[in-house]
Design a protein that fits this description.
The structure is a homodimer of 299-residue chains. Chain A has 299 residues and is an alpha/beta fold. In chain A, 38% of the residues lie in helices and 26% in strands. The longest helix of chain A has 20 residues. Chain A is globular and about 55 Å long.
Chain lengths: 299, 299
């Protein structure tokens, strides 16, 4: 089965203590789509300007990503520029040029409306709603978010959460949303807001799932060096959804393994600037690291 | 086989957002000894003043802890008073009264000098050296430490590390020691300082072992509520050593499981003030949580 992924498609200029790279392919939907493409066909919905490099369209195509839902409009592609601190855990935004993204309305091509697996990658909750309004009974809907929407669009987000099967957020967002320092206490509160499955991402500390079958503690793949963590969270949820879309049986049968595959693809993402780490790998290398994680966590 | 545990024995007055408790039994050796006692016989070496409550001596005895090496000297017991912040991750010291601890010299009774398993719990590195100087070829020596010794006794600590089999420290101490933000990069640097096994404790994020068989990612037991984390790190390493001391076969065969047992005893420690969480449990409850952790991490 294919995964429908809606989110931002951007050019990222990223500065880290390890180096600098201008106008890389980025955005939540780009990272999630490439990650998901290792597991299942992907339909991407987003918007770019007419300055969007052909090389990046070719990159999507190499990953067999369906671009029917990618609007190419006159104007500039969304451009984000940011800088990471030495410890890679905090970043600050240097520049945000919305360009054509400012008036983006994600209109789904007819063929996309019956998709079973839907990933609402990080984007304004109002747009995430707009996508769901066009869908016909999807089987599994996941949304990611960011602190910005908790700050400026909390009501939209709270309404969205009632329409989701799964909600993914990082630990600081979970704290912001629930005022709970304890992740397990936060998970309980987030369930009450709607989603049956809640995943809290903790960066290098892994992630936690809370769902009908209880808690799953998902390890992060150990990296001795992080080049650029941008998009790792998107890669995580993208790979998770790609894996789930092709697995036979119930979500509960596969969601733990889906998260481990997400962890591994996120680890590759961190090893290069932008999408460079994710795009240079093959599925066999992903499987290899999943096997390694099995060994590293066995007791 | 028994475990020899040397460290501080103290009265702790602990304030957290959840409450306040004066003059609880505390100290690194107390927490480690009670935790180890669930698995193997323990010989405690430490010092207390003549104000030390008989109830606490009885508590040690209920855990069948050998007190031959516990000096009771005229004067006051080491008294520490501290306060935890809301998120329980940071504490500040309100008061430190060393009392008889100021001139403590850990002299080992004859029968202790041939111990196979030695835990040098948190205490000045010079005293940890002094203990090792009295030992006859121990099989497995582990030391814990704290930021204070990195600040004021770094050279003693660096010399000590060459005499250890295993070194245990928390993530902020690992950063302080190696200047590495990345835990896996830090582990490599710490191995170069001597120890064959290095364990970095990450509180609610679990712990990481690096040893001859590579990395082990050890989960923390999920707690929805932490009452008082004081001594959890000592309980972790105490239980780990207690488990190892009774396991047959090589250290490598058992150290992962030993850490998981350590994680679980540490979780009980966090559920009560001082030693209240650890002393109210039975071995069966520990086994139960270890089984649960197996389920919570399986994929």
């Amino acid at each position: 089965m294919s995964v429908l992924i809606v989110g931002s498609t951007a050019l990222d200029s990223i500065k880290t203590p390890k180096g600098e790279n201008p106008r890389l392919l980025g955005g939540s939907a780009s990272h999630a789509a490439v990650a998901a493409s290792f597991f299942s066909p992907v339909k991407l919905v987003g918007v770019v300007g007419d300055d969007f490099p052909k090389a990046y369209l070719d990159l999507y195509k190499r990953h067999r990503i369906d671009l029917e839902g990618l609007q190419i409009l006159p104007g500039k592609t969304f451009h984000w520029s940011g800088e990471y601190e030495v410890n890679m855990n905090h970043r600050r935004t240097l520049l945000t040029e919305l360009g054509v993204f400012e008036s983006f309305t994600p209109t789904l091509p007819k063929g996309h409306q019956a998709s079973s697996f839907v990933l609402l990658a990080n984007i304004a909750p109002a747009l995430q709603h707009h996508v769901l309004d066009q869908m016909r009974r999807p089987r599994f809907v996941v949304a990611d978010t960011m602190d910005l929407w908790l700050n400026i669009a909390l009501n939209d987000l709270l309404r969205l959460m009632k329409r989701l099967d799964a909600f993914v957020l990082n630990d600081s967002e979970a704290h912001q949303l629930t005022k709970e320092d304890n992740a397990f206490a936060a998970l309980k509160k987030i369930h009450r807001l709607g989603p049956k499955y809640v995943v809290i991402k903790k960066g290098s500390h892994g992630s936690i799932l809370s769902g009908p079958k209880g808690i799953f503690i998902c390890p992060a793949y150990p990296l001795g060096k992080v080049v650029d963590p941008t998009g790792a969270g998107d890669a995580f949820v993208g790979a998770m959804m790609g894996y789930l879309a092709t697995a036979k049986g119930s979500i509960d049968d596969h969601i733990r393994r889906a998260m481990v595959f997400g962890s591994v693809v996120a680890s590759f993402c961190c090893e290069g600037f932008g999408l460079q780490g994710t795009t240079r790998i093959k599925r066999a290398q992903i499987n290899q690291r999943v096997k390694e994680l099995e060994r590293l966590t066995k007791f």
